[in-house]
Amino acid sequence: MIAIVDYGIGNLRSVEKAFRHVGADARLVSDAAAVRAAHAVVAPGVGAFGACALGLRNGGFDALVLEAVQAGKPLLGICVGMQLLFDSSEEMGQHAGLGLLPGRVLRFPDGMVDRAGQRLKTPQIGWNQLWHDDSDPLLAGVPSGSFAYFVHSYYCAPAEPSDVVATTDYGLDYASIVRRGNLWGVQFHPEKSQAVGLQILRNFVAITADRRAG
């Protein structure tokens, strides 16, 4: 079972439906026993970092996520859920993250332009490309340059380059997928990214199955 942590940050049914579409036993859960019983954990996030961090902590889910990672269970952070893996965010003040990955969450700078010199808007809303070296199992069957769907004004700046799995160009090259050991984070919304997103979720399910078998 894959637990999608529901800590009161919005409608997560689309994430649940996407996982079920690829054949996973994925469930929205809001109690500690269900998270502990899961074989993998998904930490979504929508809205502001501070509100998500507060919701996670108020429900005691921060400790449960740390516990799952320490137990070796696969963890997937989605959008703000990826940002929460880092030390801190500057969104509307300074807010502490989970500290599972060293680094900060920063706002896209003003005045960004694309390679053609066109002004870029913040937030980034829409389709953009994932650039990677095909080495990570989360991206099996997803060619480098594939498009995913993004909605965000802040980006992750990992302190360790080795934690970066894929990058995306939006005025600057930033980490759009990260990984350390059994935890992954994706800045985009796989549940909104059509075939590419479904393949990434399918790969996460396969990773979970492999770890159970191992």
Walk me through what this model shows:
The protein has 214 residues and is of the alpha/beta class. The chain has a single domain, classed as 3-Layer(aba) Sandwich (Rossmann fold), CATH 3.40.50. 28% of the residues lie in helices and 32% in strands. The protein has a nine-stranded mixed β-sheet, sandwiched between helices. Strands 6-5-7-10 form a four-stranded mixed β-sheet, covered by helices on one side. The longest helix is centred in the C-terminal third of the chain and has 20 residues, at 194-213. It is globular and about 50 Å long. The mean pLDDT is 94.
- Give the name of the CATH superfamily: Class I glutamine amidotransferase (GATase) domain
Inertia-based shape: globular
Strand content: 25-35%
Sheet with most strands = 9 strands, mixed
Helicity level: 25-40%
> What's the level 1 CATH class?
Alpha Beta
Q: Compute the average pLDDT.
A: 94
What keyword list fits this structure?
214 residues, alpha/beta, Rossmann fold, 9-stranded mixed sheet, 6 helices, 13 strands, globular
Summarize this, please?
With 214 residues, the protein is of the alpha/beta class. It has a single domain, classed as 3-Layer(aba) Sandwich (Rossmann fold). The chain is built from six helices and 13 strands.
